[in-house]
Structures are given as C-alpha cells and as structure tokens.
Amino acid sequence: MSEKIVIIDYGSGNLHSVQKAFQRGAAAKGHSVVVSADPAAVSAADRVVLPGVGAFGDCRAGLEAVSGMREALHARVIEQGVPFFGICVGMQLMAERGLERGSHDGLGWLGGDVVHLTPQDPGLKVPHMGWNALGSVASHPVFRDVPTGRHVYFVHSYHMKTTDPSQTLASVDYGGPVTAAVGRDNLFGTQFHPEKSQHVGAKIIENFLEWRP
After folding, report:
1. 151 catalytic, yes or no?
2. What does the alpha-carbon distance between residue 63 and residue 14 come to, in Å, rounded to a whole number?
3. Residue 192: Cβ within 10 Å count
4. For site-directed labelling of 6, which of 26, 48, 72, 115 has its Cα 20 to 30 A away?
C-alpha cells in the first residue's frame, strides 16, 4: 500500500539530500516523499522524518516557530504512533534537554540529555567528522542486515546520553563510546547521516520504510 513520508521543513537540515535519499528508497514501494512545513501534512503522514543541522537550541526554536508543528508532531508520532526517524539534531531533539550553549528543553520523548563530546584521547578533534564504524548494534528492524562494524558518516559536537541504556541502539568509539542511534517503540533516530552513508545509509532508510512497530 502506498504511503506518504513527510520530511519536516523547519528551517534546519540538508533537506534536498535527505529527500533524495528517501525518494530512492521509496520509489520501488510506490511511496511518496514530500518536504513540508505544513502541520496538516504531518497530521496526514504515514511516516515522519525530522532532520536537523546546527545547534540544538536553534533547531528547537525553529521547530517552535512553525505554528502548530510541535502539536501536530506530538499527536501524529506519540499519540497515534506512526514511525518516526530523527536525523542528527532531529534525533537529539527527542531528548529531555540539550546542553549546547545553555540548557534547552527537548521534546522529552526519550530520557536523557544531549551533551558535549569529550574524547578521552586529546588528539581526537571535536567536531567528530567523517566515517566511523558502528559498534554494539542492537537487534532492531531498522538495523536489519546492518551488522556491527559497518561505517557511517558523522558531523557533530554533541551526542545523546540516554537514561535508559536499552534506548541506545548503536554506538561508535571516538575516544570512548558515543551514541550513534537511539529509539523506543515507534521512535528511531541516528546521530549519523544516513543520506551521506552510502549503501549502509540506504539500507537503513529502506528498513525504516518497511518497519511496522
């Protein structure tokens, strides 16, 4: 059955590349992929994608600035349970707080804070930028056929520390463990960019489009 995938436009995110990546995954399934700043589109979505690039507080403010968007997002994702994919800061916004340039409330969908990267190796630079190997990948439908050790692409200076370890679905080693993916129930998010992660990212997107939580 054809589905409507809505990528939320709230003034943050590399929307073109995210849209193209999801369109490639959706084409064979007959799904439509739209980028929209209209809460009504989110209310009618079968799957919701929230990208994000930049500072946590700026992204949260951008989301709040779209009248009715946060309410539509909460209703469709939390109350009605459609599959949700947060990317980079879009993933971080699921947390309770972001501690970048002050303290900012998140959506509160997952317990935990978004904190600054502090690699134990002083030779490792922040931001963490480039390819890194997934470690400790949980058994999850969106990670089907994506085993530990596959490389994905990161660009970030902050990551989520979940209060419930079971909600951390994957990590990478960057001078210590760094959260790479989180989720619960119908919620899924990656700190890395699947749209920039070549065949591994394409597989994750394909799995998300088939996932029925």
Report:
1. no
2. 15
3. 27
4. 115
Answering whether pTM is above 0.85, one says yes
Catalytic, out of 31, 59, 159, 195:
195
Please state which architecture CATH assigns to domain 4-210: 3-Layer(aba) Sandwich (3.40)
Query: pLDDT per position in the chain (213 positions), as tens?
Result: 789 999 999 988 779 999 999 999 998 888 999 999 999 999 999 999 999 999 999 999 999 999 999 999 999 999 999 999 999 999 999 999 999 999 999 999 999 999 999 999 989 999 999 999 998 899 999 999 999 999 999 999 999 999 999 999 999 999 999 999 999 999 999 999 999 999 999 999 999 999 999
CA–CA distances in Å: residue 116 to residues 92, 97, 106, 150, 151: 12, 12, 15, 24, 22
Given the residues 104, 156, 159, 193, the one annotated as active site: 193
Mark whether 104 is an active-site residue: no
Q: Which of 88, 128, 159, 206 is catalytic?
A: 88
